[in-house]
Specification:
This protein has four helices and no strands. With about 120 residues, it is an all-alpha fold.
Amino acid sequence: MVTGLDVSWGKVDEVFTMKFIYFLLGVVLMLLVFNPAMAKQSREEIQAKLDGTCEAARQQKLTPMRRQLVEACVAKKEFPSRKECAAFYADYGERMGRRAPLFYDLPECVTAFEYNQSSRSRN
């Protein structure tokens, strides 16, 4: 019988188990953080959000312009009805044929473009 050594094995097992659980949690978190598929998905989500912000800013600029063009069309009677004028100018500001789309120079669109280009230069 050894005296002076009061070791409780139950406590040692508990500490070892907790350290092992923390270790496993750390490994799982590392795998999630450094998983390339997760990073790519996240990058695609960011790009989609930036593109959406760009498109919303463009539409905010284009909508009043389209409205004015439709009103002018109706006033000049370029088409028989307002509905036909609205249909004619519905795509105003978008890419059509050789016509460049409008307002891709807005700050929101420049940010989206630069973010897109940064992913291409990394590959």
